[in-house]
User: Fold this.
Amino acid sequence: MIRVLCVSVLLLPALMAVGGEPTSDMLTRVRSVDDPELGELIRAAMESYHSRYAQGCPEDMWAITRAVSEAYARIKLLDRQIEQLETRLTQLAGPEELRQEMVLAAAELESKRAIALAGLREVMGIMPRYAFETREVDDLSTWLHLVVLDQGVHALDTLKGFSEYWANCRWDSLGVLTGEETLTYIRKQLTDRRRRPMRFDLYYDPPNRSVAEDLRRKIMALAMETNAQMEVELHIDAITWRGTGEASFFVRDGQIRTFYPAPVRRPDGLDKKTLVTGRVEPDDLAQHILWRLTMPKNVPLTFRIEYDRAGVGQAQRVANEIRRIAERLKIDGLVDVNSVLVDPIPEAIFLGPWRAVTPGEIQKVEIRPESKTELLMRKWSDRDAPMTKVAAPWTLATRYIFIETGMREMYRGEIDGEGRLVLDRGQIYPQGSWHDEGGAPMVFEKIDQSQTSR
Assistant:
């Protein structure tokens, strides 16, 4: 008994030291994370939490910290156990039954690790990387468009300065490739790490759906074969918004005019300059043609050139430029030119105030010189809306006048056999063709200004 007491007294300072040090050390360990990997996980989890919830709740943050720490500890333990099992498997010289048991044990541990990782992702609000995932266009190095046609695959490479909005993009035509040429080209792109990450957009007319889907499967197989599947994105869509297949140029009074659904970026990439509906500057003719021919899904395309008698030379110049550019882009087999001599409707016939004589969203139109129009109208989709005055520009073609009232909203006017103005509502497609949206046309008679002024 005396011996035990003596030993206890002798050990008391040491026990006090051992009991005291962990208290201080444990508090330090609670207040900070020494493991850089765990610290980074907690930081990322907090960032993700605050990005989802503007007002952070302390209780939530404590719970997240605990959940991340526990998941991290489980995963690290499983990593260690799996590593040890794999080492033992390589050194095992025992019976096959034992090997099978160890393989199953390793598989079970890997399953637990996968579940733990899934839980950690959920806690942290992180979507993991996966094969053929969608990514932001700013993260891409390459963006290819493949249009599956009867004649082959029209391949286009998007030029740098990517944007999800088509009107801000520029493209370079790679020509029309055979199926084999397409796959050879894609393999070359996939093996060049500088071209990754990359995105493929496949388009097809409904009759070519099976060909497009087969091409998609082959691209996926090539991506996996070249171990590039984590840096490849694939989309496939039917072509449903093409238009009539015509791109129009109108030559009258010494000027060339054309149409766009919205201002579009020039193919040469000059900043702050866009191609828009209206007059085509002579030096910009090639840019207008190039945009039509490189916009994905625009070809096959027929250029319709309507011209007056004084514009024969200009029309020929436009036609020659179209053929030259189509040949340079290696798509001349997909491009036609149709030149038509017309007698233009004089501008003066359209000018003046017009009053509606049939129901419609427009009650009155006043077409003024210098491409100015004032309409008394309401939005066509809201019949109960009040009539308001709307200022809109107009563009004169050869037989029609086009009045643009808003983004992708346009009216096409012509003079009928009785001298009345007839307006149809529609829009311009990227090809440059007019698309009538249907519905009854609106008819207007000209207001006799001499009578209204009396």
In short: The CA atoms of residues 143 and 272 lie 23 Å apart. The longest strand covers residues 388-396.
